[in-house]
Design goal:
241 residues, single chain, Jelly Rolls, globular
Length: 241
Amino acid sequence: MPTAPDAADGSPDFIETYPDALTAAQCAALVERFAASGKTRPGRVGGGVLPELKDSQDLALSEQADWRDAEALLNQAVFRGLLAYLRRYPHVLIAPLMLEVPGPGGTRHRLTPERLRAMNDDALSSMAEMVFRPGAINLQRYSAGRGGYPYWHCELYPRDPRADTLHRHLLWTIYLNDGFTEGETEFLHQRRKIVPRAGTLLLAPASFTHTHRGNRPQGGDKIIATSWVLFQRAEQLFGGS
Protein backbone atom coordinates (compact mmCIF):
# COMPACT_ATOMS: atom_id res chain seq x y z
CA MET A 1 0.00 0.00 0.00
CA PRO A 2 1.29 3.53 -0.71
CA THR A 3 2.09 5.60 2.35
CA ALA A 4 2.44 9.28 3.06
CA PRO A 5 5.83 10.91 2.44
CA ASP A 6 8.26 11.70 5.24
CA ALA A 7 8.76 15.22 6.53
CA ALA A 8 10.87 17.62 4.49
CA ASP A 9 13.98 16.73 6.50
CA GLY A 10 13.51 13.02 5.78
CA SER A 11 12.40 12.07 9.29
CA PRO A 12 9.13 10.15 9.67
CA ASP A 13 6.16 11.82 11.35
CA PHE A 14 4.36 8.49 11.94
CA ILE A 15 1.24 9.74 10.11
CA GLU A 16 0.44 7.32 7.31
CA THR A 17 -2.30 7.28 4.70
CA TYR A 18 -3.34 4.24 2.65
CA PRO A 19 -5.48 5.03 -0.41
CA ASP A 20 -8.07 2.48 -1.57
CA ALA A 21 -8.43 0.81 1.83
CA LEU A 22 -12.09 0.64 0.77
CA THR A 23 -13.44 0.83 -2.77
CA ALA A 24 -15.60 3.72 -3.96
CA ALA A 25 -18.59 1.36 -4.06
CA GLN A 26 -18.02 0.20 -0.47
CA CYS A 27 -17.76 3.80 0.73
CA ALA A 28 -20.91 4.84 -1.12
CA ALA A 29 -22.84 1.89 0.31
CA LEU A 30 -21.77 2.75 3.87
CA VAL A 31 -22.68 6.43 3.39
CA GLU A 32 -26.13 5.52 2.03
CA ARG A 33 -26.77 3.03 4.82
CA PHE A 34 -25.61 5.51 7.46
CA ALA A 35 -27.97 8.17 6.12
CA ALA A 36 -30.91 5.75 6.22
CA SER A 37 -30.16 4.33 9.69
CA GLY A 38 -32.21 6.83 11.71
CA LYS A 39 -30.14 5.91 14.79
CA THR A 40 -27.53 8.66 14.97
CA ARG A 41 -26.87 10.56 18.16
CA PRO A 42 -24.97 13.78 18.89
CA GLY A 43 -21.25 13.07 19.00
CA ARG A 44 -19.61 12.77 22.40
CA VAL A 45 -16.19 13.61 23.79
CA GLY A 46 -14.77 12.33 27.07
CA GLY A 47 -16.79 14.86 29.06
CA GLY A 48 -20.09 14.18 27.27
CA VAL A 49 -21.99 16.00 24.52
CA LEU A 50 -20.12 19.27 24.05
CA PRO A 51 -20.87 20.60 20.56
CA GLU A 52 -18.50 23.52 21.01
CA LEU A 53 -15.71 20.91 21.08
CA LYS A 54 -17.18 18.33 18.68
CA ASP A 55 -20.29 18.86 16.54
CA SER A 56 -21.27 15.65 14.76
CA GLN A 57 -23.92 12.97 14.39
CA ASP A 58 -22.55 9.55 15.34
CA LEU A 59 -23.54 5.92 14.99
CA ALA A 60 -21.81 3.45 17.34
CA LEU A 61 -21.53 0.23 15.32
CA SER A 62 -20.86 -1.94 18.37
CA GLU A 63 -24.39 -1.14 19.55
CA GLN A 64 -26.00 -2.18 16.25
CA ALA A 65 -26.32 -5.93 15.65
CA ASP A 66 -27.34 -5.35 12.03
CA TRP A 67 -24.05 -3.53 11.32
CA ARG A 68 -21.75 -6.47 12.15
CA ASP A 69 -20.90 -6.95 8.47
CA ALA A 70 -19.85 -3.31 8.13
CA GLU A 71 -17.85 -3.53 11.33
CA ALA A 72 -16.00 -6.58 9.97
CA LEU A 73 -15.37 -4.87 6.61
CA LEU A 74 -13.86 -1.81 8.31
CA ASN A 75 -11.74 -3.84 10.74
CA GLN A 76 -10.36 -5.94 7.87
CA ALA A 77 -9.40 -2.79 5.96
CA VAL A 78 -7.70 -1.34 9.02
CA PHE A 79 -5.85 -4.59 9.73
CA ARG A 80 -4.37 -4.60 6.23
CA GLY A 81 -3.14 -1.07 6.83
CA LEU A 82 -1.85 -2.02 10.27
CA LEU A 83 0.40 -4.73 8.81
CA ALA A 84 1.93 -2.19 6.43
CA TYR A 85 2.33 0.27 9.30
CA LEU A 86 4.10 -2.34 11.44
CA ARG A 87 6.55 -3.12 8.65
CA ARG A 88 7.39 0.57 8.37
CA TYR A 89 7.46 1.18 12.13
CA PRO A 90 8.24 -2.20 13.78
CA HIS A 91 8.79 -0.62 17.20
CA VAL A 92 5.04 0.02 17.38
CA LEU A 93 4.85 -3.71 18.15
CA ILE A 94 8.20 -4.53 19.74
CA ALA A 95 9.04 -1.46 21.87
CA PRO A 96 6.20 -1.91 24.41
CA LEU A 97 6.75 -5.68 24.79
CA MET A 98 9.83 -7.93 24.82
CA LEU A 99 8.45 -10.43 22.32
CA GLU A 100 10.15 -13.66 21.28
CA VAL A 101 9.77 -15.72 18.13
CA PRO A 102 10.69 -19.37 17.44
CA GLY A 103 14.14 -20.04 16.04
CA PRO A 104 15.85 -23.16 14.64
CA GLY A 105 16.17 -26.24 16.85
CA GLY A 106 13.47 -25.16 19.26
CA THR A 107 15.32 -22.01 20.33
CA ARG A 108 13.62 -18.66 20.79
CA HIS A 109 14.89 -15.25 19.72
CA ARG A 110 14.01 -11.74 20.73
CA LEU A 111 11.89 -10.10 18.03
CA THR A 112 13.91 -7.41 16.25
CA PRO A 113 12.89 -4.98 13.51
CA GLU A 114 14.77 -7.11 10.99
CA ARG A 115 13.01 -10.31 12.06
CA LEU A 116 9.63 -8.57 12.00
CA ARG A 117 10.13 -7.24 8.48
CA ALA A 118 11.18 -10.72 7.34
CA MET A 119 7.94 -12.30 8.59
CA ASN A 120 5.35 -13.28 6.01
CA ASP A 121 1.87 -11.80 6.36
CA ASP A 122 0.47 -14.87 8.14
CA ALA A 123 3.14 -14.79 10.84
CA LEU A 124 2.92 -11.03 11.30
CA SER A 125 -0.89 -11.22 11.41
CA SER A 126 -0.73 -13.80 14.20
CA MET A 127 1.68 -11.62 16.16
CA ALA A 128 -0.46 -8.51 15.67
CA GLU A 129 -3.64 -10.32 16.72
CA MET A 130 -1.89 -11.59 19.85
CA VAL A 131 -0.87 -8.07 20.93
CA PHE A 132 -3.65 -5.82 19.58
CA ARG A 133 -7.45 -5.67 19.44
CA PRO A 134 -9.86 -3.45 17.51
CA GLY A 135 -11.69 -0.61 19.20
CA ALA A 136 -15.36 0.28 18.97
CA ILE A 137 -16.12 1.94 15.62
CA ASN A 138 -18.09 5.15 15.19
CA LEU A 139 -19.52 6.43 11.94
CA GLN A 140 -19.60 10.22 12.09
CA ARG A 141 -21.20 12.93 9.98
CA TYR A 142 -19.92 16.50 10.19
CA SER A 143 -22.39 18.94 8.61
CA ALA A 144 -21.12 21.44 6.07
CA GLY A 145 -20.31 24.84 7.52
CA ARG A 146 -21.19 23.80 11.07
CA GLY A 147 -19.85 20.40 12.11
CA GLY A 148 -16.30 19.60 13.08
CA TYR A 149 -14.03 18.64 15.94
CA PRO A 150 -12.10 21.90 16.40
CA TYR A 151 -10.75 21.05 19.86
CA TRP A 152 -7.08 20.05 19.82
CA HIS A 153 -7.08 16.59 21.40
CA CYS A 154 -5.32 13.25 21.59
CA GLU A 155 -6.92 9.82 22.04
CA LEU A 156 -5.67 8.91 25.53
CA TYR A 157 -8.08 9.67 28.35
CA PRO A 158 -7.71 8.39 31.95
CA ARG A 159 -11.35 8.50 33.09
CA ASP A 160 -12.33 4.97 32.01
CA PRO A 161 -12.13 2.72 35.13
CA ARG A 162 -11.18 -0.30 33.00
CA ALA A 163 -8.43 1.79 31.35
CA ASP A 164 -9.51 0.88 27.82
CA THR A 165 -8.93 4.48 26.76
CA LEU A 166 -5.34 4.16 27.98
CA HIS A 167 -4.88 1.00 25.89
CA ARG A 168 -5.31 3.01 22.67
CA HIS A 169 -2.06 2.72 20.73
CA LEU A 170 -2.99 4.02 17.27
CA LEU A 171 -5.88 6.08 15.99
CA TRP A 172 -7.48 5.40 12.63
CA THR A 173 -9.94 7.08 10.30
CA ILE A 174 -11.34 5.90 7.00
CA TYR A 175 -12.77 8.75 4.96
CA LEU A 176 -16.05 7.65 3.38
CA ASN A 177 -16.63 10.63 1.09
CA ASP A 178 -15.02 13.69 -0.39
CA GLY A 179 -16.34 16.39 -2.73
CA PHE A 180 -16.17 19.10 -0.05
CA THR A 181 -13.46 21.60 0.84
CA GLU A 182 -11.48 21.92 4.06
CA GLY A 183 -12.53 19.34 6.66
CA GLU A 184 -8.94 18.10 7.00
CA THR A 185 -7.55 16.08 9.89
CA GLU A 186 -4.93 18.52 11.17
CA PHE A 187 -1.99 17.47 13.34
CA LEU A 188 -0.68 20.20 15.63
CA HIS A 189 2.99 19.42 16.20
CA GLN A 190 3.61 17.92 12.77
CA ARG A 191 1.97 20.95 11.10
CA ARG A 192 0.27 18.64 8.69
CA LYS A 193 -3.24 18.50 7.25
CA ILE A 194 -4.65 15.27 5.79
CA VAL A 195 -7.13 16.02 3.02
CA PRO A 196 -10.06 13.55 3.08
CA ARG A 197 -10.28 11.23 0.08
CA ALA A 198 -13.00 8.58 -0.04
CA GLY A 199 -11.58 5.14 0.75
CA THR A 200 -8.33 6.39 2.31
CA LEU A 201 -7.22 5.02 5.68
CA LEU A 202 -5.31 7.27 8.09
CA LEU A 203 -3.17 5.71 10.86
CA ALA A 204 -1.25 7.67 13.49
CA PRO A 205 -0.16 7.36 17.15
CA ALA A 206 -2.85 7.99 19.76
CA SER A 207 -0.77 9.97 22.28
CA PHE A 208 -0.26 13.70 22.86
CA THR A 209 2.59 13.80 20.33
CA HIS A 210 -0.09 13.55 17.65
CA THR A 211 -2.57 16.04 19.04
CA HIS A 212 -5.03 16.77 16.25
CA ARG A 213 -8.40 18.23 15.32
CA GLY A 214 -11.05 17.76 12.64
CA ASN A 215 -11.56 20.94 10.64
CA ARG A 216 -15.02 22.07 9.58
CA PRO A 217 -16.05 20.92 6.06
CA GLN A 218 -17.33 23.45 3.58
CA GLY A 219 -19.62 22.85 0.62
CA GLY A 220 -20.70 19.36 1.71
CA ASP A 221 -20.93 17.05 4.71
CA LYS A 222 -17.91 15.00 5.80
CA ILE A 223 -18.51 11.33 6.71
CA ILE A 224 -15.94 9.08 8.33
CA ALA A 225 -15.48 5.79 10.17
CA THR A 226 -13.09 6.06 13.09
CA SER A 227 -11.69 4.08 16.02
CA TRP A 228 -8.42 2.84 17.51
CA VAL A 229 -5.97 -0.04 17.58
CA LEU A 230 -5.75 -1.04 21.26
CA PHE A 231 -3.44 -3.31 23.20
CA GLN A 232 -4.97 -6.53 24.44
CA ARG A 233 -5.79 -6.33 28.11
CA ALA A 234 -3.10 -7.49 30.56
CA GLU A 235 -4.93 -10.67 31.47
CA GLN A 236 -5.01 -11.63 27.80
CA LEU A 237 -1.35 -10.84 27.22
CA PHE A 238 0.13 -12.11 30.46
CA GLY A 239 -2.56 -14.32 32.04
CA GLY A 240 -4.02 -14.01 35.52
CA SER A 241 -6.61 -11.52 36.77
